[in-house]
């Protein structure tokens, strides 16, 4: 059970800023994305432009295996534009 | 070294109130330092012929602060003589010509602080989870820094 945070365009597409999702303890980052898109299909359009932040470290969408603990924070990160 | 010169500090703040160049530069001033370098990012009033009404910034605040902290740590590794670093970034609505970000760095001599400020703003644009929305007269656009490696290259 993880907290998923949405920002910028991803928050607009998902229609919310945060929620709790049930996910397997071990997933690849791509599998995690697919779980999220099942809940929010409109997010599919930004798939090629997002990364995750898992426990505040950036993770690309791909084969990287994530070991998630209950309460972990996962954020959907569209292209950044600070500064 | 004299105790009153103080321990090197990082001053990091994300806030919705107007930023102050005086406040940020005063944070880094130190008796041992002959140079304070400051970068101010301000908001332009136009993009591709469209009039920008104002900007809106949002942030993954806790991670943005930790990423800025990492930048400060890297700065101190690359330029060990750097004394204080201050990074203030505004969130929420920022009117045209007002500052969205102010970075100030102090060092004994000018070369290091000038280089460190450049490094700070360039790295901030590549790695800190803050997003800018440009509001035009009848639409808006989420911006993407070219430094961001996961943005589509053509924009």
UniProtKB/TrEMBL annotation, chain A:
Domain of life: Eukaryota
Pathway per the UniProt entry: Cofactor biosynthesis; molybdopterin biosynthesis
InterPro entries: Beta-grasp_dom_sf, MOCS2A, MOCS2A_euk, Mopterin_synth/thiamin_S_b, ThiS/MoaD-like
HAMAP family, alphabetized: MOCS2A (MF_03051)
Signal peptide coordinates: none
Keywords: Cytoplasm, Molybdenum cofactor biosynthesis, Nucleotide-binding, Phosphoprotein
One GO BP: Mo-molybdopterin cofactor biosynthetic process
Encoding gene (name): Mocs2_1
Alphabetized Pfam families for the sequence: ThiS
PANTHER family: MOLYBDOPTERIN SYNTHASE SULFUR CARRIER SUBUNIT
SUPFAM superfamilies: MoaD/ThiS
A single GO cellular-component term on record: molybdopterin adenylyltransferase complex
GO molecular-function term, one example from the UniProt record: nucleotide binding
Gene3D superfamilies cross-referenced by the UniProt entry: 3.10.20.30
Name recorded for this polypeptide: MOC2A synthase
From TrEMBL, chain B:
SUPFAM superfamilies on file: Molybdopterin synthase subunit MoaE
Record gene name: Mocs2_0
GO biological process, one term: Mo-molybdopterin cofactor biosynthetic process
Organism: Rostratula benghalensis
UniProt GO cellular component terms: molybdopterin synthase complex
Cross-referenced PANTHER family: MOLYBDOPTERIN SYNTHASE RELATED
Record keywords, A-Z: Cytoplasm, Molybdenum cofactor biosynthesis, Transferase
Protein name (database record): MOC2B synthase
Entry GO MF terms: molybdopterin synthase activity
Pfam families the UniProt entry points to: MoaE
């Amino acid at each position: 059970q993880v907290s998923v945070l949405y920002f910028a365009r991803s928050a607009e597409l998902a229609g919310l800023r945060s929620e709790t999702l049930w996910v397997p303890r071990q997933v690849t980052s791509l599998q995690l994305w697919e779980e999220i898109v099942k809940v929010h299909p409109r997010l599919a359009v930004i798939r090629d432009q997002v990364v995750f932040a898992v426990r505040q470290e950036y993770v690309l969408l791909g084969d990287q295996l994530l070991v998630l603990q209950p309460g972990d924070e996962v954020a959907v990160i569209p292209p950044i534009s600070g500064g | 070294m004299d105790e009153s010169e103080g321990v090197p500090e990082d001053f990091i703040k994300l806030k919705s109130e107007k930023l102050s160049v005086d406040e940020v530069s005063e944070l880094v001033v130190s008796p041992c330092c002959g140079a304070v370098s400051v970068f101010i990012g301000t908001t332009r009033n136009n993009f591709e012929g469209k009039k920008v009404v104002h900007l809106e910034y949002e942030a993954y605040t806790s991670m943005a602060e930790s990423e800025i902290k990492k930048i400060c740590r890297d700065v101190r590794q690359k330029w060990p003589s750097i004394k204080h670093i201050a990074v203030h970034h505004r969130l929420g609505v920022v009117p045209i010509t007002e500052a969205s970000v102010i970075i100030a760095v102090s060092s004994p001599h000018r070369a290091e602080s000038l280089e460190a400020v450049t490094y700070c703003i360039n790295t901030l644009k590549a790695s800190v989870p803050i997003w800018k929305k440009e509001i035009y007269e009848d639409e808006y656009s989420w911006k993407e820094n070219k430094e961001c490696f996961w943005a589509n290259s053509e924009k």
